[in-house]
Amino acid sequence: MPELPEVETIVRSLRPFVPGRTVLTVDVRRADLRRALQPCFASTLSGRRVDAIRRRAKYMLFDLDDGRSWIVHLGMSGRFLRVETASNHETRKHDHVIVTLDDGAGLVFHDPRRFGLMAIDDSSSSPLLSGIGPEPLGDDFQPSYLADLRRRTRRTIKDVLMDQRVVAGLGNIYVNEALFAAGVRPRRKLSSMTSEECARVVRATREILKEAIEHRGSSISDFLDGVGRRGAYQWRRRVYDREGEPCPLCTTAIKVVTVGQRSSFYCPRCQR
Ligand SMILES: [Zn+2]
Questions:
Q1: Catalytic residue among 229, 262, 268, 269
Q2: Cα–ligand 1 centroid distance for 251 (angstroms)
Q3: Which whole-number Å values give the CA distances from 159 to 139, 250, 268, in the listed order?
Q4: Is-catalytic flag, 58?
Q5: Residues forming a β-bridge with 265
Q6: What is the DSSP letter of 168?
Q7: How far is the CA of 254 from the centre of ligand 1 (A)?
Q8: What is the DSSP letter of 60?
Q9: Does the annotation count 127 as an active-site position?
Q10: Backbone angles phi, psi at 256, to 5 degrees
């Protein structure tokens, strides 16, 4: 599932090509994504110029010249790929939406499991984006923010970090990696953590995300960026999906536990 670094990587890969281009046609082949596309989706997007591309949480936002945004979420298995020449693109199974631009390029939304979604909306008032917590790489995600939450929840640190209302864009891979880097076990209750541990988790989260963006995300299953390149962070992960392998710091075998129905990987010696 694409997390913040993968979505950021797609946005950055498209940024040299898409802003300034106008949408010529919108071919909706399947409208029944996680939620149905708006009936006016294609007619609203057609003729609009894309002025900018940005990311909020795990959403891509294509800001349009009428003030609204084309909002895209990749769900579990979505891909968003630019093809140089739309007319040469051979449509594959699971290509659900194909947009052509005025330079002849195409933007293809491909999603076998159809957990992704798209909408045209005002990004400042869209229900899709309201209630999402601060960006982890922004100024609002500080040690004091996490420390202040201790009194208000009995949840584990893993569950807290996975909650999009608490902090935006994190998923299983990067939460596991961040908790390893911070030396905190995924099952620790946030309320039991010291201020120093909260600070370490915040710092580690930011560092892991920056490192993952630098390496253009993780292609553990089948992630590709917006121009079809694989990411390279999968070669750097320390604990995620490494059950039984030696910890890179102390060589103890990595363990796995289930937290919130997701596998959590940790080093029993380095993490407390
Ligand atoms: Zn270790």
A1: 262
A2: 6
A3: 22, 26, 19
A4: yes
A5: 256
A6: S
A7: 8
A8: E
A9: no
A10: -125, 135
How long, in residues, is the chain?
272
- Report phi then psi at 202, rounded to 5: -65, -45
Candidates 58, 82, 216, 237; catalytic one: 58
Q: How far apart are CA 92 and CA 71, in angstroms?
A: 23
Q: Is the pTM of this model over 0.85?
A: yes
- The residues facing 27 across adjacent strands are 98
* SS3 (DSSP) at 218: coil
pLDDT in tens, 36-91: 999 999 999 999 999 999 999 999 999 999 999 999 999 999 999 999 999 999 99
Buried b (16+ CB within 10 A) or exposed e, 113-125: ebebbbbbbebee
251 Cβ partners below 8 Å, 6+ apart? none
Q: Which of 2, 5, 136, 186 is catalytic?
A: 2
Annotation says 236 is catalytic: no
Task: Please report which residue ranges of the chain form alpha helices under DSSP H.
Answer: 4-14, 41-45, 143-149, 157-162, 172-182, 195-214
Q: Which residues 6+ apart lie within 8 Å of 211 measured at CB? A: 233, 236
